[in-house]
Design goal:
single chain; Transferase(Phosphotransferase), domain 1; Jelly Rolls; seven-stranded antiparallel sheet; 24 strands
Length: 624
């Protein structure tokens, strides 16, 4: 380790290196970005190629050193434009280090924390770029191993880049990544891009909500998400979620990164302009590029000072001329109105403004008063005309042929005038009669059935009514006899899980138990299996109302299925009940009795033990 041109004494450990130190006589440390687990992540300056690089550093005697160098070798075999490539890896000065390309921009977790969830097409394009890069690595036999939002970068040019391919997992003490874990993380990246929630672990983003041991679908977290993206997230994050997922896997390859990338590319369509839009979104270089001066070798002797000639005095600047004052404005006559062009004399004249204000308009004349009703003294109405006008004909609208009224001839009888409002009274009377008739029909019908006029059951007939509930509904469900149990492990190879211990779960003795194998990872979407359990044969079809469970250890998450036939898989089954037992004894009461002969207890999460995870069932009692 070289510090400012001088060698440090003794071996170096990460706690002793500081900004400005030079590693392997080449990489000068600039900024410490993160520090965890005895390792450090630096932004460094390559003094040979004059560029910035990313530097992972751990002690040379760290147990992760060999795995880190091996991960760097595997990562260097993957060639893709979206990867921040490994440039160098070695041991020097008591340290083990890996050098990667330097990327500038915003990581996905920062984009979501500052700007909220992404739009559907933008999120699908971003994850399709990640899936395409992961597919290249899987084809070369290398997995990322830690595909979290913090390792997805959108640089200032709008391109998607991946950080720490295979190296970041080794830095955190994880083994070589698995292809299935990368595929599940791709679904998690799409989920968090659409909702802002992360369905996995090891990320600073808020966790995704979980219900019944499964992550909620994106459409239940945020409105407006297309159904095709919602189905993809649910099937990858919650595999074997139901019939919809089976149909989706029949038409699309969702078990590989390439299949997920093709699915998202088909949703995006033509991606032209998306990268330019990301660049315009302002993914600037958050770390200012700093060019450090080269460290010179120490001279053999101090050079003699050389007298520098005194600088010549600068000539005094010439005074600037005083600005000229603008000419005083000249009053111009104002014009008003429109121009008038004279074609003969090529002259323009203007319509001048009024010298005096215009007179106000004349007041409105009040209309002549008209009587509300015509006079009743004149029995006949004749057209109004100047020759034979009568007093009655002067009132409008009576007697005026221009209004549409028909004059009555002399000697004819005047028509009988209609009383105002009589038609409405007749209509109201008809409606009232119809309502009385309808009420009478309803009362007669209820009395004919032996009920009250309003349709209620009489008090003295309640006990004998066929529809009255019997007292047996309030009786507690009774244990079923003759129940047998076998292990149920459709996802195992071979498909058995301690079958010789399965009868101990229904022998009535809580001291004897059936237990699962010990797993290094818990059951669920991120584990080797989504679950394992027991299949109980009730002997014949029963109405199952409750199940008493006794576990060893806590907590244990489970689902209960009741079927007529013995199931061969969980996919497509509708659970009768789900839950998590935080104590060793629990009674699960179904919302409504479910009829069936076979009851399946499916464990989806099991307690932690000293050497991993193991579930243990002491007793199951089925009540019907």
């Amino acid at each position: 380790m070289t510090v400012d041109g001088e060698a440090d004494e003794g071996s170096c450990v990460p706690s002793s290196i500081r900004p400005g130190d030079v590693l392997a006589d080449r990489y000068r440390l600039v900024d410490l970005l993160t520090e965890s687990g005895g390792g450090r992540f630096w932004r460094a300056h390559d003094r040979v190629l004059e560029r910035h690089v990313a530097l992972h550093v751990i002690p040379a005697d760290d147990e992760r050193a060999d795995a880190l160098l091996e991960a760097a070798r595997r990562s260097a075999t993957v060639h893709d434009r979206r990867l921040l490539r490994v440039l160098d890896a070695d041991r020097a000065d008591g340290l083990c280090y890996v050098v990667n390309e330097w990327g500038s921009g915003d990581s996905l977790d920062i984009m979501l924390a500052s700007g909220g969830p992404l739009g559907p097409r933008r999120a699908a394009w971003l994850v399709s770029e990640v899936a395409a890069s992961i597919a290249v690595g899987h084809e070369a036999g290398v997995a990322h191993g830690r595909l979290i939002p913090e390792n997805v970068l959108v640089d200032h040019s709008g391109s998607v880049r991946l950080i720490g391919f295979a190296v970041d997992a080794a830095m955190h003490g994880l083994g070589p990544g698995r292809v299935s874990a990368d595929v599940a993380d791709l679904g998690g990246l799409l989920y968090c891009s659409l909702t802002g929630k992360w369905p996995g672990t090891q990320s600073a983003l808020p966790p995704a909500p979980i219900e019944g041991g499964q992550v909620l679908r994106p459409r239940r977290v945020r409105a407006g998400i297309p159904r095709s993206l919602d189905a993809l997230c649910d099937e990858v994050v919650n595999p074997y979620a139901g019939a919809w997922g089976d149909r989706l896997r029949e038409t699309h390859d969702l078990a590989t990164a390439q299949g997920i990338g093709d699915y998202l590319s088909a949703f995006v369509g033509d991606p032209t302009g998306l990268a330019a839009a990301e660049a315009a979104a302002g993914h600037r270089d958050t770390e200012a590029t700093v060019t450090l001066p080269a460290i010179p070798d120490p001279p053999v002797r101090e050079p003699e000072p050389v007298a520098q000639p005194a600088p010549a005095p600068e000539p005094a600047p010439e005074p600037e001329p005083a600005p000229e004052e603008p000419p005083a404005p000249v009053d111009q006559p104002t014009q008003a109105g429109l121009p008038i062009f004279d074609d003969e004399n090529d002259d323009v004249s203007w319509i001048t403004a009024r010298a005096e204000a215009a007179p106000p308009p004349p007041p409105f004349e009040e209309p002549p008063e008209r009587p509300l009703f015509a006079p009743a003294s004149d029995a006949t109405r004749t057209p109004r005309n100047p020759a034979s006008a009568t007093p009655a004909a002067e009132y409008w609208p009576f007697g005026d042929p221009g209004t549409g009224t028909t004059p009555v001839a002399a000697g004819a009888e005047a028509p009988e005038e209609e009383v105002p409002g009589r038609n409405w009274l007749r209509l109201a009377a008809v409606i009232a009669a119809c309502l009385i008739l309808l009420v009478g029909i309803v009362v007669a019908y209820n009395l004919g059935r032996g009920r009250t006029p309003l349709g209620a059951v009489p008090d003295d007939d309640t006990a004998s009514s066929p529809s009255a509930p019997t007292s047996s509904a309030a009786v507690d469900p009774q244990p079923l006899e003759g129940v047998t149990a076998t292990d149920f492990d459709p996802q195992g190879e071979p498909p058995d899980e301690n079958p010789e211990l399965a009868p101990l779960a229904v022998d009535g003795d809580p001291a004897t138990t059936w237990r699962t194998a010990t797993y290094l990872q818990n059951l669920g979407p991120g584990g080797l299996k989504t679950g394992v359990g027991l299949l109980l044969d009730l002997g014949e079809v029963h109405d199952v109302a409750a199940v008493d469970l006794t576990f060893v250890g806590e907590p244990t998450s489970f689902s209960i299925y009741v079927t007529d036939e013995a199931p061969t898989a969980i996919q497509g089954l509708e659970p009768a009940a789900t839950g998590t037992a935080d104590t060793t004894r629990a009674r699960i009461t179904l919302d409504a009795p479910v009829s069936g002969r076979f009851l399946t207890l499916w464990l989806t999460s099991i307690p932690a033990v000293s050497d991993g995870f193991r579930g243990e069932v002491a007793e199951i009692t089925v009540r019907g």
